[in-house]
Amino acid sequence: MEKKKPYGTVLIKASKILDYLAENPDVSLQVIAKGVEMTPPTVLKILDTLLRIGYVNKNSEKNYRLGAKLIRYANKNIEQMDLVELTLPFLEKLQKKIDETIHLGIIDNDEILYVNKLEPKHQTIRMSSKIGITRPLYNSAMGKAVLAEFSEEQYTAYLETHPLVPYTKYTITNALRLKKEIQTVKESHVAFDDEEIERDIFCIGASIVKNDQAIGAFSVSMPKYRLTDKLKKEIIHALTQTKKEIEKRI
């Protein structure tokens, strides 16, 4: 049986070139071609594309090295993994107090990107959320907590470029009402999503701030029928305590 060639062989070659440059920065076309065992014309075509998209840089001596864009992706991934590892013991401690779904998110293109999820231990009905999904800032608990850390200029710019689209009939779509709620979040340091993204789901979130900048957020989510006034107060207290502990650690 004939073995199929993998789709995107040029990408495989590009990956090989990038791997080589990661270990051997500031080298010429000829050196790269020899190192990756490809012809110089083939390597040049791939390098031209990598230059165009910022994955590779070329200096005045026509030597190549990894570009800032590729390094930025790597650094972002490292920061993301650092936050997951750093917050994990605190979120596990929070979950022992509150046996509900715990989410951790980071800010990505003006959205909340889920990077960790802790499932409840003793609940039969669980959240359908997954690591890797995104949620808007204006109608999620983690997102509102982040918006509360924005400067006035940042907040105004966000509203100008992000329409308040309703996800459910409970989504806040009035800018004045949202601003009033964000002001409340600034004062209380906790934010709520009361069925604004998904029917019958209630979330309570808090931001994670480092050097006066929000670097992420975390939340407790549950089916709304399980929420009582007593439990809500317990979650808010535990959430604010966890926020202090995480921010002290970072």
Straight-line distance between termini = 56 Å
What assembly state would you assign to the polypeptide chains in this entry?
A: single chain
Strand content: 15-25%
Reading the helices and strands in chain order gives: HHHEEHEEEHHHEEEH
Quick structural gist:
InterPro entries: GAF-like_dom_sf (IPR029016), HTH_MetabolicPath_Reg (IPR050707), Tscrpt_reg_IclR_C (IPR014757), Tscrpt_reg_IclR_N (IPR005471), WH-like_DNA-bd_sf (IPR036388), WH_DNA-bd_sf (IPR036390). It comes from Enterococcus ratti. This protein is of the alpha+beta class.
Give a structural overview.
A hairpin with a 5-residue loop joins strand 1 and strand 2. The chain has 8 helices and 8 strands. It is elongated, with a radius of gyration of 23 Å. The model has no long low-confidence stretch (mean pLDDT 89). Helix 1 packs across helix 3 and helix 2 packs across helix 3. It folds into 2 domains: 64 residues, Orthogonal Bundle (Arc Repressor Mutant, subunit A), CATH 1.10.10.10; 168 residues, Beta-Lactamase (2-Layer Sandwich), CATH 3.30.450.40. Strands 5-4-3-8-7-6 form a 6-stranded antiparallel β-sheet, sandwiched between helices. Strands 1-2 form a two-stranded antiparallel sheet. With 250 residues, the chain is an alpha+beta fold. The protein is 47% helix and 20% strand.
